[in-house]
């Protein structure tokens, strides 16, 4: 009888559930994919149900439920925050205290009630693991390393915002921490807010904006906002920030320092925003590099594991790899709070004696992050027939070749195969694919499919065996969490026409794969092996055979503002609502021109909130 | 509490009578937020106690 642990994250950002059996990850999924509410923080009833179904069990067979943070410790931090900002922080006090007194403090009861409501069997004992321990466990235990330095950096858990650990075998030893309010995640979120984006979801837009600007504010940030020590530790000057006191991130001191009020959301971006983004990105990179170097010095390890929201800053991750302090860097694909569910479960599992079986196979324990639901061709067929869809059925190799041929004609393809990804990135299970060589593909996909702003670049998937020809990266990047330069051999000299500035810079052709090359020649890379994802590897190989190019544009299968699609039904609806040309779902190939006319009651674009 | 205004008033009283004095006192003794910057300090790391849950 395997020892089964169910991990849960909920109530703050990105609720999720994960199931671990004898130390091996069986299933994991974010609640948003089921409820269609982006970053859904409600109790992950659907995700839990899915995990139990995937394992073929009821709650009665689960040995323990692990919750990803310690609510009592968090409550003490909330109280300390409210007290420390008195007497000016009444608004925050009035807003947050009642929730804490009613249910947030007693999370175990809330989780218990949520599990009881599932009617899936008797509820097992519920234990809590600290937030950063959950992150650290999600970073180290599934990594392919026997031992490693582990660094977790985020906004805040209970108290810790930055933690350093030493992972060895099935043990994780805490070494040191930095506490709230001193937080790199909060610093980055403050600039996210100030540049007019949404906190907690807009940070990667700031990262994407940075290459357009110059770090002219770096000195101001380093002298006034953050005192960064040689060893990577730091404190923020709270006089400039509002988040202790209230609901917004930055105050008047911040405005004075950077010359004015924040940008209003959805208003035009100016050079100031580009430069602010470049500046906070540079400071964050410097902090992360120092923290990584310190981790190497303290542990003596040559391998590094990363998790926590700031580990989603793949540009900074790429700088760590580039610096070469470590000869291997592994990042938990669900580096944010959803991964906490997995980490909490793993922490409990390994403490009870479970081993890390994947180490023997020299692999990581994330199964390519393909840990969500799959749908059989029978289920897919029923869904397509109900919609009156017109399709052709074919075997995997023929499907791959047909898709590759259409991609080579610059068609945009919705690709839906196998188990859904866990974590924020689409990795070739729920992806939209395109030809990266086409200089118009970036615009096409931006405007016609994603209906989104034009400054964010797309990301490439590349056959692992050919990655070195196209990118300056000499380690695997299976989860699209590392940014590196496009290889010199692929770069093309650009001539800036008169007056090309700001976001127009993106339109200049910089390489043989322009759709995935950012204005500074960088790319956010996914390396694909046959072992991790045979279906996706097959279509990449077919495209390579047809065109000589082993790279495809891989963007997530969804419209802007909605979570990545989960079911074949959602895939078909997204296909029909947008200008995607082809849909390859399971063993079925659909061409847009063949489909019956699409009709909808209301304007779906108004129903989905902007992100 | 059903009456929102009454709840707000009670919270306000709690805030002024308890939270504020506690907060001000704490800041005199030891700031839990460790807000003071120290240019001469070598590090801001807080060492962890041996593993506990």
From TrEMBL, chain A:
CDD domains from the UniProt entry? ASKHA_NBD_TobZ_N
Superkingdom of this protein's organism: Bacteria
Carbamoyltransferase domain residues are 5-346
Indicate the segments forming the Carbamoyltransferase C-terminal domain, all copies: 404-592
Question: Which Gene3D superfamilies does the record cross-reference, listed alphabetically?
Answer: 3.30.420.40, Carbamoyltransferase, C-terminal domain (3.90.870.20)
Pfam families from the xrefs? Answer: Carbam_trans_C, Carbam_trans_N
- InterPro entries, per the entry: ATPase_NBD (IPR043129), Carbam_trans_C (IPR031730), Carbam_trans_C_sf (IPR038152), Carbtransf_dom (IPR003696), NodU/CmcH_Carbamoyltrnsfr (IPR051338)
Residue spans crossing the bilayer: none
The molecular function terms in GO held by this entry are: catalytic activity
Task: Describe the family membership recorded for this protein in Swiss-Prot or TrEMBL.
Answer: Belongs to the NodU/CmcH family.
The entry's protein name is: Carbamoyltransferase
Give the organism the record lists.
Actinocrinis puniceicyclus
TrEMBL record, chain B:
What is this protein called in UniProt?
Uncharacterized protein
- List the source organism: Actinocrinis puniceicyclus
